[in-house]
């Protein structure tokens, strides 16, 4: 399994190491270049100092001829250090050990060496050409600088390339070393920072892990990063939805157990009477009552399942919300009710205008079907009217019946579960209008109950948003 902590550490330390190594390489190259520039400047400075000190005295010397015995150059003894170039402390009280690595020569206009340092070669140090040069003398590489005075004499200074490279590398490595030494420290700091940041994740994990299934209270953690707070907020939202879902399931289970107890007991009684009927008439009567009880049980279970699905926050197992033709739904519901009840289709009068609403088609179907089914059952043999129209940006569904209606003081409570008004003479579960109310809440619709001025029973007026 992947680890955020490991991924962060590897990415931070790896990226930092790569960047520091690149920076160290550039620092090393820059150090070498700067050291070479400093050494070249020192060579040029040495030649100029030599010229300023020796040009006038050398001008007073007689001119030398090539091959003459008296033409041997003057040799200047220099200080010899007793330590090598790799000593810990090359600087001593009497000088610097690297002085023996430096050499100089003075040559006249004909190239004869007039003066040279004891530390340099006896042969000419460099060609007679102004500027810097690189030469090999007796197998040793020299870096040289040549300068000509106004009197025509040539002043040359040289430095062994090996000692230059040694010193330049030490300087360059000195500039690179702090970056390399910083790597372990950066790795430790990155580890501490990532460990501190992941501590919030561990606290959230511990808080969730220690929860019992029955505890749905929000997780309360203070002083956490913004990103972790977002995760906690999402988890708390999930816990709240789970709490609501569990509450609905408990309520549904309790309601179903309460409402199914009596019908099941009645079915058992009718089945017992059918099995112990004394004659054919009693058996037929018991069978009729059993069939009616099964039909009531089937309708009650169907309504309970419909109410449970509508109350659920989970999306239905259908396509997303699309425009729904309200008139088509009304015609289909009318045909289903006629097929289920066997009544004359002339009893249900339709006045349907083509209006489309936005929402889940199953929810729209639940609204229309329950209103039409209630109107047909309560109207007994009376007429039922279903009218669909439009007012502004709202679709209107009006269902009227010729039944007994609902008293004005009872119209608010009939939307509660299992609420039925006594004296209607119609068997039911008291769930139809509850299903309608729940479905309209999710569809963004409204419903108003009042007396039907045309048929004398109940009039239900539903409004829905037009697609």
Q: Number of domains in the coordinates?
A: 3
Indicate the radius of gyration in whole angstroms: 53 Å
Percent of sequence in beta strands? 15-25%
Q: Approximately how much helix is present in the residues?
A: 40-55%
Summarize the structure.
By secondary structure, the chain is α+β, with helices and mostly antiparallel strands. It has 7 helices and 15 strands. Strands 1-5-4-8-7-6 form a 6-stranded mixed beta sheet.
Question: Can you tell me about this structure?
Answer:
- This protein has helices at about 5-60, 160-210, 225-275, 280-310, 325-340, 360-380, 430-445, and strands at about 75, 90, 95, 100-105, 115, 130-135, 140-150, 155-160, 320-325, 350, 355-360, 385-390, 395-400, 445-450, 460-465.
- With about 475 residues, the chain is of the alpha+beta class.
- The protein folds into three domains: about 5-175, no CATH class; about 225-310, Helix Hairpins (Orthogonal Bundle); about 320-465, 2-Layer Sandwich (Heat Shock Protein 90), CATH 3.30.565.10.
- α3 packs antiparallel against α4 and α4 packs parallel to α7.
- The radius of gyration is 53 Å and the shape is rod-shaped.
- Residues about 85 and about 315-320 have low confidence and may be disordered.
Question: How would the blueprint of this fold be written?
Answer:
Layout: H1 4-59, E1 74-76, E2 91-92, E3 95-96, E4 102-107, E5 113-117, E6 131-137, E7 140-148, E8 154-160, H2 161-209, H3 226-275, H4 280-311, E9 322-325, H5 326-341, E10 348-352, E11 356-359, H6 361-378, E12 384-391, E13 394-401, H7 432-443, E14 446-451, E15 458-465
Parallel strand pairs: 1-5, 10-12
Antiparallel strand pairs: 2-3, 4-5, 4-8, 6-7, 7-8, 9-11, 12-13, 13-15, 14-15
Helix pairs in contact: 1-2, 3-4, 4-7, 5-6, 6-7
């Amino acid at each position: 399994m992947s680890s955020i902590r490991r991924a962060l550490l590897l990415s931070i330390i790896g990226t930092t190491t790569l960047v520091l190594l690149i920076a160290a390489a550039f620092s090393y190259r820059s150090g070498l270049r700067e050291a070479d520039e400093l050494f070249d400047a020192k060579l040029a400075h040495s030649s100029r100092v030599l010229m300023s000190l020796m040009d006038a005295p050398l001008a007073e010397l007689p001119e030398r001829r090539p091959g003459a015995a008296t033409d041997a150059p003057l040799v200047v003894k220099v200080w010899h250090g007793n330590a090598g170039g790799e000593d810990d402390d090359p600087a001593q009280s009497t000088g610097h050990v690297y002085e023996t690595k430096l050499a100089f020569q003075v040559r006249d206009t004909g190239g004869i060496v007039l003066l040279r340092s004891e530390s340099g070669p006896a042969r000419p140090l460099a060609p007679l050409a102004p500027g810097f040069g690189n030469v090999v003398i007796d197998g040793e590489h020299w870096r040289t600088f040549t300068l000509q005075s106004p009197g025509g004499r040539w002043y040359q200074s040289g430095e062994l390339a090996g000692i230059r490279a040694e010193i330049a590398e030490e300087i360059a490595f000195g500039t690179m070393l702090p970056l390399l030494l910083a790597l372990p420290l950066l790795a430790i700091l990155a580890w501490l920072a990532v460990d501190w940041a992941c501590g919030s994740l561990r606290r959230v994990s511990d808080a969730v892990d220690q929860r019992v299934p029955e505890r749905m209270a929000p997780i309360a953690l203070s002083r956490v990063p913004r990103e972790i707070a977002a995760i906690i907020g999402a988890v708390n939202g999930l816990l709240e939805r789970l709490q609501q879902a569990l509450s609905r399931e408990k309520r549904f289970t309790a309601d179903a157990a309460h409402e199914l107890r009596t019908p099941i007991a009645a079915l058992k009684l009718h089945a017992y009477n059918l099995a112990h009927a004394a004659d054919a008439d009693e058996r037929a009567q018991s069978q009729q009552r059993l069939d009616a009880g099964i039909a009531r049980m089937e309708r009650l279970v169907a309504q309970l399942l419909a109410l449970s699905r509508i109350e659920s926050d989970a999306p239905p197992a259908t396509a997303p919300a699309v425009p729904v033709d309200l008139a088509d739904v009304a015609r289909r519901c009318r045909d289903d009710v006629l097929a289920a009840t066997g009544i004359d289709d002339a009893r249900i009068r339709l006045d349907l205008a083509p209006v489309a609403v936005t929402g889940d088609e199953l929810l729209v179907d639940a609204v229309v079907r329950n209103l039409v089914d209630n109107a047909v059952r309560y109207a007994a043999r009376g007429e039922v009217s279903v009218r669909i129209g439009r007012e502004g940006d709202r679709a209107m569904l009006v269902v009227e019946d010729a039944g007994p209606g609902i008293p004005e003081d009872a119209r608010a409570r009939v939307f509660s579960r299992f609420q039925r008004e006594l004296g209607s003479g119609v068997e039911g579960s008291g769930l139809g209008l509850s299903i309608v109310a729940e479905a309209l809440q999710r569809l963004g619709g409204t419903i108003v109950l009042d007396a039907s001025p045309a048929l004398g029973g109940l009039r239900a007026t539903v409004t829905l948003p037009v697609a």
